[in-house]
Amino acid sequence: MEAGKDESVEVEGLRLVRAFLSLPPEKRAEVIAFVEELARVHAPPGEGEGKPAR
User: Fold this and answer.
1) Per-residue pLDDT tens for 27-42?
2) CA distances, 36 to each of 26, 33, 40 (Å)
3) Which domain holds residue 29?
4) Most buried of 5, 10, 48, 54, CB within 10 angstroms?
5) What is the total count of domains within the chain?
6) Is residue 51 domain-resident?
């Protein structure tokens, strides 16, 4: 059962990537900004300080 669950997670991930890539560039930028903000808000204190990932 675990293998089937892993496959469905992978399939869903691929669907999300495909949907993201089908967006126009300005919408992709909005999605990236939104996800970065979520990551910043939910990061433990002190994490993410220093050099940016980009």
Assistant:
1) 999 999 999 999 999 9
2) 15, 5, 6
3) 7-42
4) 48
5) 1
6) no
